[in-house]
């Protein structure tokens, strides 16, 4: 590859600085389900999820805190869940009315969309919530 082309590509990448670009790469993410013990409602699930996320956040600042806990809608979200270009572990948990299975979405992007370890983080989150729920 000609040196001029390499230099131009390097210069263009530096213009953007450290801000993550949504067009650069997909956000490392994992979606899974969590079957709930009988009688567990959104309030109890979300309390356990928030306790787990808070504990993870104390041990690892990559975990963003809960910003939305809407029991009526059955939705819990970490801060800045929707945008793609945010660093950190972000969680969205949905429990449809009348369901005994929650859906967990976890995003875990570092600088330049580096995977922060979403597979292990999902296992840890599900395990922590499960212990809290008594399962």
Descriptive account of the structure:
This protein is an alpha+beta fold. The chain contains three helices and five strands. Helix content is 35%, strand content 24%. A hairpin with a 4-residue loop joins strand 2 and strand 3. Residues 7-23 have low confidence and may be disordered.
Describe the secondary-structure layout.
Blueprint: H1 3-15, E1 29-35, H2 42-59, E2 66-70, E3 75-78, E4 88-94, E5 101-109, H3 118-133
Antiparallel strand pairs: 1-5, 2-3, 3-4, 4-5
Helix pairs in contact: 2-3
Q: How many strand units?
A: 5
Rg on CA atoms, Å: 18 Å
- What would you call the structural class? alpha+beta
DSSP helical segment count: 3
Poorly predicted tracts of residues: 7-23
Strand order of the largest sheet: 1-5-4-3-2
First-to-last CA distance: 57 Å
Q: What is the name of the CATH architecture?
A: 2-Layer Sandwich
Helix content: 25-40%
Q: What fraction of the residues are assigned to beta strands by DSSP?
A: 15-25%
Return the CATH topology.
Alpha-Beta Plaits
Look at the structure and give the mean pLDDT.
87
Supply the number of structural domains. Answer: 1
Series of H and E elements: HEHEEEEH
The description of the largest β-sheet is: 5 strands, antiparallel
Look at the structure and give the CATH class.
Alpha Beta
Structural shape: globular
